[in-house]
Amino acid sequence: MSYPVLITGAASGIGRATAVALANTGRSLVLWDIQAGPLAELAAELAVPTTIAAFDVTDTEKRHEAYAAARTAQGGFSGLVHAAGVSGPEPISAFTSEAWGRTIDINLTTAAVMTHELADDLANSGEGAIVYISSIEGYFGHAWLPAYCTSKAGLLGLARAAGHELAARGVRINCVCPGAIETPMLAPLLASDDFRNSITMRTPLGRVGRPDDIADAIVFLLSQQARFITGTSLVVDGGLTSIGGI
Ligand SMILES: NC(=O)c1ccc[n+]([C@@H]2O[C@H](COP(=O)([O-])OP(=O)(O)OC[C@H]3O[C@@H](n4cnc5c(N)ncnc54)[C@H](O)[C@@H]3O)[C@@H](O)[C@H]2O)c1
């Protein structure tokens, strides 16, 4: 029997869709998010063993309590999906170290520290795999999103470097880079018809992405079908960046 996959940011959007998709393949789950209500509602819908914890994933003490509770309930971990993220719009001209630090901490540093903390579990599982949710913003730059773009580019480097080290222990690490996806994070932008139409027109596959488009790519990268893939990224954007990006 497989150990569970831990998903951060599981209460909403891409993390939530990933929980549903993994449950549909029979994988057991550990789900973390800062939003307690939606997390409990999701867990009640899933028909696989599921352990939940609602807290800020940057909180080291709470993370260690939640690891311990999950190990007691389900024995260990076989996968990690770091989907918790914030966009933190703030141009460099309005830089504050507090806003910059918070975005980098949630999006990037927590991915690194959790990779360190889970390395033994993932290696011992014999099928360990990690997926960080980067973004096409990891390849592009936007004036209003410097911390976000930096955090997402950082995840690409982290997957290469940590993937190199942990390959020797049989643990694979990859990124998924979504394009524009219909989630609460992008809702304020997609509420504008101009933005939505502009994305749709510039996407060869002709629509805004859905959370399950990304979840299916994550399920693949966690599975044995991806057994020879590590240290790289998979762009899932309907072709948006193939013709020049956003
Ligand atoms: N929506 C898009 O178009 C898009 C595109 C590229 C990348 N992404 C990335 O996908 C990931 C998921 O985003 P989404 O679009 O599903 O957004 P979302 O807002 O629906 O989900 C993000 C989740 O992370 C949780 N979260 C945020 N900070 C947290 C913290 N400190 N502790 C615990 N939980 C926390 C939120 O509560 C939320 O449930 C993010 O990393 C985002 O940057 C999204």
TrEMBL record:
Gene3D superfamilies cross-referenced by the UniProt entry:
NAD(P)-binding Rossmann-like Domain
**GO MF entries:** oxidoreductase activity, acting on the CH-OH group of donors, NAD or NADP as acceptor
Quote the SMART domains the UniProt record gives. PKS_KR
Keywords carried by this UniProt record:
Oxidoreductase
Report domain Ketoreductase positions.
3-187
Q: Name one Pfam family in it.
A: adh_short_C2
Family, as annotated: Belongs to the short-chain dehydrogenases/reductases (SDR) family.
Question: What PANTHER family would the database entry show?
Answer: 3-OXOACYL-[ACYL-CARRIER-PROTEIN] REDUCTASE, SHORT-CHAIN DEHYDROGENASES/REDUCTASES FAMILY MEMBER
Q: In its UniProt entry, what is this protein called? A: Unannotated protein
| Species the sequence originates in | freshwater metagenome
